[in-house]
Protein 1
Amino acid sequence: MKREKIYRLFSRMPTLTTERLLLRPMSTLDAYDMYEYSCREDLTEYLLWSPHPSVSYTRDYLAYVESRYATCDFYDWAVTLQSSGKMIGTVGFTKIDAPHNSAEIGYVINPEYHRLGLGFEAAERIVAFGFEKLELHRIEAKFMKGNDSSLHVMEKLGMTFEGYHRDSMLVKGSYRTIGYCSILKEEYEKNKTV
């Protein structure tokens, strides 16, 4: 995949839809909705970042995100409910490796909306975008050991668990074991026809 294709697709962050969700660019107007979940320690236990200390901190972060969209090097969408417009999380590509036609996805959903299949629905749409629009060969995802709900989403996406890297990341002062899952384009296409 050529870098030019990435810039072309993300020069204006595309809006994507699912049955219940609208995936759109994040904005500082999302500060209260994002803070509602980003301030929670139970949510950030398995994430690389710490709870947001205030709404103004969240608003500053979203202003930074808006500036990153302008440079076409940030690939995360706001996950919003079509029914209300409420932002309930984020989903997107944490990195895109253009020379090797691969990418890594990540997702965060407000715990108030867990167990409704919304994280899977959002991630499934991003995987489809990756294979169909970016023409990726491989999409992977990582999770911290113990985060069984994230692993469940990955398995539901048709990803294969590849194993753990023991104590491979220093996160908030502790070494964490990281699990890896992936799906290849041929597997995605086979799953689509089943």
Protein 2
Amino acid sequence: MLTLKQLRDDKELAIKRLAKKGVDAAPVIAKIEELDDRRKAIQAELDNCLAEQNAAAKQIGALIGQGKKEEAEEKKRFVASLKARSGELSVEHQSVSNELQSQIVLLPNFPAEIVPEGKTAEDNLVVKLVESYTALPENPLPHWELARKYDIIDFDLGVKLTGAGFPVYKGKGARLQRALINYFLDCNTKAGYLEVEPPVMVNEASGFGTGQLPDKEGQMYHATADNYYLVPTAEVPVTNIYRDVILDEKDFPVKMTAYTPCFRREAGSYGKDVRGLNRLHQFDKVEIVQLSLPENSYEALDGMVAHVESIVKSLGLPYRILRLCGGDMSFTSALTYDFEVYSEAQKRWLEVSSVSNFESFQANRLKLRYRDGNKKINLAHTLNGSSLALPRIVAALLENFQTPEGIRIPETLVPYTGFDIIG
């Protein structure tokens, strides 16, 4: 969530920055200014009213002591009227404050200066391309056909048990899933990330804290009886561990990693791009989260990008890194890098990770702060990244490493799978 200071110190700059994300912020900021001015005016009147009330209350005792009962009664009636007015002002102040808050949360985060201009994924900037293509059989099969051929993923059984987008992994397919999760977690913990195992259901406050609510409630599975949400990513519960927490400068950086199943409705998704593992309602993902001092957060982002790249590279897959344009960025992000691996069988790039710096946007919603050397309280910065999302990694491994004998397992994964080929 943006702060009032960010919006009011330079309104024109705020409007210009948000325009890069395709948002016409002018009417919302005008409404915010109007509500903020009204809130301040109500607060000033309330403060004056309370001050008068306290002064008059002190006078009542003196008047009674002087035997001036009528004047004392008159003063009591005056105090009663002030109390009534104070009550009205308090209610009005709360109402205006709530409306102000509801307007502020409509606005996305400012994009960083280096975010490219653009409206769609076609405008994203390729910042790195690493080609490591393998020789494939003639007419290579897409992963959904390979999964059926080797009986490792059953999409039809998933439809029977739940519905489309909930595959069942079997045999070596299930072991490959478990191997990737363990491998990714080991890579992250070796890099200094503390492993945590969070709940996979969160409350509304957690969804609001990381920006999924109220922006993405339509994409989240909602357990209405208890008002809990199934997590779309481990970022939500892990970052919320530090909701309403004040850290000290010496506590940074905070680095955490977690594996969770992730649940996304993916409403509106259809067509060839959702076949097989390309887009699921339930999938496995390992996440990394960092909390940083503001002055160090972009150095932390670079470190996270390098870390994710090292994992992708170790799998031997062709990949590229994109800097997302303003129109393709998430609501909460200030700067995002996407990792994509190439599917030779599908002839397309598959996104496997997003690494983002949210600056203070999430921290403001979370009330995640720190105390600096001068004992001043400031907002921290938050970052997160997929390290990695499994479905499209599995799709790329199956498709890019298929051979006439079977699917070759990358050397780095063999100690985790216990086998070197699926055949």
Protein 3
Amino acid sequence: MLTLKQIYDDKELVIAGLEKKRFSGAREAIDNVIALDQERKNAQQKKDSASQEMNSIAKEIGRLMGAGKRDEAEAAKAKTAQLKADIKTYEQEMAAAEERQTQALLQIPNVPYSIVPEGHSAEDNIAVKVGGWAYGEALKPLEQSAEQAFSAEGNGIALRDWPAAEDPQPAFAKLPHWELAKKYNLIDFDLGVKISGAGFPVYIGQGARLQRALINFFLAEAANAGYTEIMPPTVVNAASGYGTGQLPDKEGQMYHCEVDDLYLIPTAEVPVTNLYRDVILDEQELPIKNCAYTECFRREAGSYGKDVRGLNRLHEFSKIEIVRIDTPEHSDRSHKEMLAHVEGLLQKLELPYRILRLSGGDMSFTAALCYDFEVYSEAQKRWLEVSSTSNFDTYQANRLHCRYRRQEDKKVQIAHTLNGSALALPRIVAALLENNQTEEGIRIPKALQPYFGAEMIR
């Protein structure tokens, strides 16, 4: 959540940032936080004044007793008793104001960085880089270096201006992945409905092997990049959900085990980042780099139509997540390293991709800066999101009380947190099946073949 220092240091900048995120009632929300903080301070001042008076009276009682003025001493004791009761009342008022202030802050999203484009929806997202195809002249500016792509000075194209026909014409009609899954007996969507319901596919034979191959490939690549693998629980308590910002913002989208008050995780970001809740790290430990493979669970309430066909949108899916804890001075470099890692995975899988800088209106509740990676689906003629890679600045860490001790002066500071999908499997599988289909079978990318154990699905 936002810190009070952020709000007090530059209130107008915070409000402008919240308005960029299309947060309704930004000024009123910030004014309410300030008013609650003033309420807490007023109670604190009353408590401090009462404590000071009580200490003075306590000293006076000793003097009165020594002078034999018992009646006056007893009157002073009665005054002390009243002050004790007042102090307890002021402490309760402070706690109540602080709790209301915390609840108010939990409802306020993170402030986006200045590099985040203005916009109301996904149409305002800016494509900053493309790869995997020989593009036409319209997209030539996006064939730029990562350093250019992830800076404010780089080229970009709003999605509303994206060229209509950018993919090469296939030699034969490409089948969508749900038909390929049936043709090669890779995934049974109907069995999933029978067992659990829509959005819970059953992977069979070579389909299951492809899932395992991708998981092992992504984990191996993360290990080579210096990430420590974590195997966390896939259910978390409410404190963990609040720590990373899924609660209260996404409460209706999470599966909730009501009897035990536990939540199925929507992403490994939640348990892995919460490893550092209420922890003070040493600066020399940073950046911490973790990765985790987990199943992820999302209710996806309100989703319908072509966007949910086949693997496009599931309630349960596999994903590898990368998470970093870092210093404010180094977190931008960490973010760029994570983006380069995700891009490298897509390049090794030989998939056409584009990288988007999300606009304020399309960003998550918790992110300060987010880039989405999308791969192109040749059969569906559409782009599929496969990763969101975000810098949260101090927003999550403040909720988590995740801090570090600076080496130079031993001061304790709030850390920065970052995470990204590296990668989510369902749409990667969809694109691999659709883009690599041939008349003889489905070609497996060279980098994946050692993990899959074959060159083709036949």
Protein 4
Amino acid sequence: MNKYLEISSEVKEALDAGKPVVALESTIISHGMPYPQNVETAFAVEKIVRENGAVPATIAIIGGKLKAGLTAEEIEYFGKKGPSIRKASRRDLAMLCARGEDGACTVTTTMMIAHMAGIKVFATGGIGGVHRGAEISMDISADLEELAQTPVMVICAGCKSILDIGLTLEYLETKGVPVIGMGTEDMPAFYTSKSGFKVDYKVDSPEELASFFKTHLDLGMKGGILVGNPIPDEYSMDPEIIDPAIDKAIEECNKLGIKGKETTPFLLAKVKDLTGGDSLESNIKLVFNNAKIAAQTASKLK
């Protein structure tokens, strides 16, 4: 694997010294928002990780290399190329490496590369899951399968609210993935703090979360754990605004026949337009909050 994996000097030094490291995904840079806001946000997230005692490791594929830790120049490069970079899931890694191409890492591939590098904690926005109407389309995110087999803690603001949250939790239960609520018994719904669906366990501090994950690893559990960290109340969107926007976006998506991996980017962009950009601001704030909790948890993980 060393032939394809490149760990930045800063991240390698931290891992060798047993210092806390937090993985960050690169899809939010390439596909999450326009340039230069995407680059500014990526730098801000890395800064938050540092301020809370950990080393950030933004993860991407550049020139066929699996990169754990990007330089400022590489983040700028990713931000400028934007959506022209292929979103890379598990099925894409070998081909991108073989062809020497770039890839934006989703939750799935960020988990994979983090695990290869020895990074145990990963902060993202929201995970993929079971799409609405999946009983017909069979559209289920690879993120859920990765959580079932890769021992990385994923800290997020819950399932993206464009998904079927109830079925997503059922799928995770079947796969044996613990779903933990940070200070809540209610699974967060990305733009809002509550979905109406219960998590498996509630924890009240990064120390408790780190203790749980250490025990999970000590027991040799093969999969990861999912942490739902609610968006801060001051940035949470009114369900009466966001829910109709999501419903309208899904209706238009179905009408246009958009399917597969193009579904989520379309829906998130449409929801942003329908909410006058408010959903994007909420998205950024929840990522900041997840990065903070992830760094604090990684710092307690011995």
